[in-house]
Amino acid sequence: MSSNNDGESFRYDAEVRPGEKRHIMYEVGESFLGDPIEIPVTIINGVNKGPRVFVSAAMHGDEVNGVKVVQEVADRYDPQELSGTIVCLHVLNVPGYRAHLRYLPIYDRDLNRSFPGSENGNEGKRIAKVIYDRFVSNCDIGVDFHTSTRNKVTIFHTRADMSDPAVAEVANAFLSTIVLDGAGAEGMMRRVASEDGIPTITVEMGEAHRYQPAMVDLALENLHNLFAYFGLIDEEFETEPAWQRIVGPKEKKWIRSTAGGWVDMDWGPYPIVEEGNSVCTISDHFKREEHVVEAPFTGLVIGMAANPITVPGQIIAHVVSIDDDDRKVIEQIVDEQGYSRIGTYHWMGRRTTPNEDVERARRGSTTPEESETDESEPERGTA
């Protein structure tokens, strides 16, 4: 790290001088009462010159894991020990965050389809315009934190356009192991920023409306490596993850329910499904009808439904293809660190291996014998 104290001021419509950390509430719009809508922002401007990195959260108001990540970044880093600038955008979608809603309330607009924004557009585009022009466009690198939407969960992974060398460098510096490769949809902040020469990645981690400390800790570790890699802090770093699976558009699939009823996941204890084997069984309340949903290929379950109640067409799991080498690494991670390190509190798969199930049955430690049941048709319309 340079010790020349050659830092530069960070400017938005004000100025943060080198060696200063500033917490602000910045107006990005107005409410129905004419009150200002303000987003919390922390700018940590190092005493020395270096790259400017933004970290952002709560683009969707129900995605809270990233909010804790950004809060910790804002607290942990000292501008006196920094070469460059960290811009912490704590909560991008303040109206949604206040209402515990994914989208901007009332009209359900997705803020992450509104960039780069427009000063004459709808409320989402106007908010996006201010955020982008004042903060994002003044940075060199970006990391945007997300979670899955309600009633769904996702393991820790990155979304990035790996065909762009600058974006790939950011993803690798963040030590991204599982990367869904693609530029992203039109209007996404990471796509717009990357196309404007500000390589940006999206990090997906966990569930909406949930605080998952293991995922937050992993995000903070990986961000610390990224800061070291790009020279913001003077520490050792890894140039890339020890293992990585880059997933192309044709190497992943949403698996959907084929019937309505109760979902029993048939995979586990590793988050892996086997081609042609059952992903889950869907049954009615009386277990008279059972529908088996099979895996189209052998893959890693990176997302799944958090609710075991389903209807035809609903998403059950999000699966990406893996090979034998990938499988060995995934099993090792789960064995050594536990699924919560990359996964979620909601574990709907089996917790024991088939061999352990056999051993339990041999010892007579299975569930008690089923009682006799009346196999006649249930009466309808009675309490």
TrEMBL record:
What are the required cofactors? Zn(2+)
Q: Which UniProt keywords apply?
A: Hydrolase, Metal-binding, Zinc
- Coiled-coil annotated residue ranges, if any: none
Q: Which Pfam families match?
A: AstE_AspA_cat
Tell me the GO molecular function terms.
hydrolase activity, acting on carbon-nitrogen (but not peptide) bonds, in linear amides; hydrolase activity, acting on ester bonds; metal ion binding
Keyword check for Hydrolase, yes or no.
yes
Task: Give the Basic and acidic residues compositional bias ranges.
Answer: 353-362
| Ranges where the record places region Disordered | 350-383
InterPro entries per UniProt? AstE_AspA_cat (IPR055438), N-alpha-Ac-DABA-like (IPR043795), N-alpha-Ac-DABA_deacetylase (IPR053138)
Where's the Succinylglutamate desuccinylase/Aspartoacylase catalytic domain? 49-226
Q: What is this protein called?
A: Aspartoacylase
Tell me what organism the protein belongs to. Haloferax massiliensis
